[in-house]
Amino acid sequence: MIATLPAADLHARFAAIVGERNAIVAPTDLRTYECDGLLGYRVRPAIVALPANTDEVAACVRLARELDMPIVPRGAGTGLSGGALPSEGCVVIGLARMKQILAIDLANRVARVQPGVINLDITRALAPDGYYYAPDPSSQSVCTIGGNVAENSGGAHCLKYGFTVNHVLGLTLVTGDGTIVQLGSVAGEPDPLGYDLCGVVVGSEGMTGIVTEVLVRTLRTPQATRTLFATFPSTDEAGDAVSRIIGAGIIPAAIEMCDQLAIEAIVAATAVDWPLDVGALLLMDVDGVVAEVDETAAHAEEHLRAAGAVEIRRPKDDAERALAWKGRKAAFAAMGRISPNYYVQDGVIPRKEIATVLREIAALGAEQGLRVANVFHAGDGNLHPLVLYDGRIPGEEAKAEHVGGEILRVCLRHGGSVTGEHGVGHDKACYLGEQFSADDLDAMMAIRTAFDPERRFNPEKVFPTPRLCGDKPGAYVPHAVEQSGEAGRG
Amino acid sequence: MTDAEIAIVGVAPREVVTPRDVPELATTIAELHAQRKAFAFVGGGTELELGYAPRALDTVVRTSALRRVVDYAPEDQTITVEAGITFAELDAVLAEHGQMLPLDVPDRARTTVGGALATNAFGARRQRYGTAKDMIVGVRVVRPDGTLARGGGKVVKNVAGFDLPKLAVGSLGTLFGIVEATLRVYPIPAARETLAYAMPTQEAATLAVRAFVARRLEPEALVAYHERTIVVDFAGTGAGVADQGTAAANALREFGGVPTETPIVRSGAWRMRVTAPPAAFARDGGRWESNPSPHTFVFPLLGIAWDISDGPVGVDVIRRNGGTAVLHDLPPLARPHVDVWGPPPPSFPLMQAMKANFDPQGLCNPGRFIGGL
Predict the structure, then answer these.
(1) Could you say which residues from 318 to 377 on chain A have a Cβ atom under 8 Å away from some Cβ of chain B?
(2) Which of A441, A450, A442 is nearest to A183 (CA)?
(3) Contact B134/A162 with Cβ under 8 angstroms?
(4) Which of A163, A191, A207 is best to mutate for the B interface (most B CBs within 10 A)?
(5) Cβ-based neighbour number of residue A8 at 10 Å
(6) Which residues contact A378 (CB under 8 A, 6 or more apart)?
(7) pLDDT digit string (tens) for A424-442?
(8) Any CB–CB contact under 8 A between A425 and chain B?
(9) What ipTM does this complex have?
């Protein structure tokens, strides 16, 4: 599926739909679209189209189909798994121009937004009325809701409140043949009839169609939030504290952990006054009704102490609280202060295994002579090891990638997952075959092809293929129906 | 329920089989598939009247022998169980560790986990905990050709692969059978308080509920019986529950409420679930003025009502106004005169494609779901 039209003709065809300026073919302009937040892979698309509304998206999809081009949807391009990495000869359909909050309906506790709306802007629009949108990926000030839907994005506070999928009630989707279809709830009514297609499209990594409107749930801002900050001699004690708190039946809104290296980077890059002589820290929110959070925060503090906390701080006001969270959310960007390059990983493990797994990860890094910083969502066992390396030293990048891959295998050995929130994308497709059997993947492919039988949307993502992964163990094995020719792969 | 008593929407199967374990289940299904026999899965049999009569039903596959706890990690608040375990059995296992699965189902002694997932069962605690879709983290299914497949996993956070668990919940056994599920479980709250207040009018009841929201109370359950009697549950820490109980009682009294008993819901041959945007229920009880009699009970903040009655009320009006009205129970003689699901949504062609991908031969509970899926 390689575009065969000359660039000028291609441009003319898409420009007829989206306008001259919003169809991009000049090589220098295309450079922006060659990759997403996973910078190691770059592919130049044949063209980028930036539609302004649902009808234009549908027309672009129909044109791509006529020209037999792959389609790669794109939000803000902040994804970390290469989900928006272009395919050879594809059209990238960017949703950046569709950035309107269409309606806020607090009586029904929903908001209808276009996919290009920035995550945090939804909460900003709702805040004056005492409502908010719960999923809060660390990139929430730049990432868009369309991308969040594609990746089923999480964030620190999904421990208590769930992920994007738990907060998206309805969608408008453009499917493989350019049809515009409404999925799920229309106006906030629960339990729409039939299969939960909305729930399936969320997290389908741009492989089921292009989402052009999103109906999100809005939540009432809780009466109170109490934040606790605790330092520990090492990640062992911090991990133990997390286990104790979760095990005691406390459901915090968030518990985040930073290890010593991460603290060093964050302190260097932001205005936080965290101590540098500790092995780990936990940042924790408890929210709900006032009387309850005070009681719960007091219990949590007892568990922090019992696990060996060195120091416990309670931010005195909202400003201090916001600063602590700003430090946490700036963690990835702060890595530049302690390393020229880093490779971020995103694995999940059962929460009781945190201390053990962190030791295994450190050992994997040490074997290759690389440092690994950890800053992650401890409450739900979602690790973000940052493998630090220097790209100028030949071979170091490959070593970092190797360590990253081995980290995922450690997560799988402990009964976990290769991704908690960044998605499989291009980066982890080969590891998906280690987490799931060929039969499991075949069931997932049956879901995908119900939406997109031609597999035109975001081909070469998520599913392991021999082309991507070679013939190593765990690589994709075609199902019987595929071998017999009843169904094929795009 | 004995094998001989089983009938799905009035259709009795030619045979009933009860596989002893998962491998035997897979083999059984593969054999039925090879013989092109139509089959349906039955758990506790509490929702056998839901939906259209199946187009064909050769074999009922009971999950009652699949009731193992496969893996329970209390410290991780997850449990993996086979589909045939009942809620009563599950409750007992979880209670040993002070935990619970806060899903309200028709009959805890009979309802199975697989059945509750397939029908997306819920009750009043949905207010706090959401539905099975918010609790399920992994699923293992048997596809109509006998192939076993998993989706999701055993950890609470996981976006690897397509969301088979979400597809499974509420699919009524028309795509595959649920064999095993991993669920997020919750601590049993330390304290609990229930308030029941009779309100002078439906409007007063609505205003009191609005006051709960304005004061940012977080009830575990909130039900308005006959649109007049509000029963609200708070659960959590001792201080939190006491504080919320006082705040709620104040709001209820402010609008003229007086303490009462939780009403007893009488039974009826008709049982209908109504859903609409929540504001519709604040307006006129979600009846669009078509029906003078109030809903039997309403979950006002969720946008859901149940009508238990001796006859159908307002079905067409509700559907015309963008709500859904699903008849879970009705007298057999009335079935030809009422569409129990109502018209399928605009996304129905995609649902047909999903059905065709998973069950191309149409063997798996054919015809029972919306639009005859």
Answers:
(1) 348-352, 377
(2) A450
(3) yes
(4) A191
(5) 9
(6) A238, A239, A242, A255, A256, A257, A282, A351, A354
(7) 999 999 999 999 999 999 9
(8) no
(9) 0.97
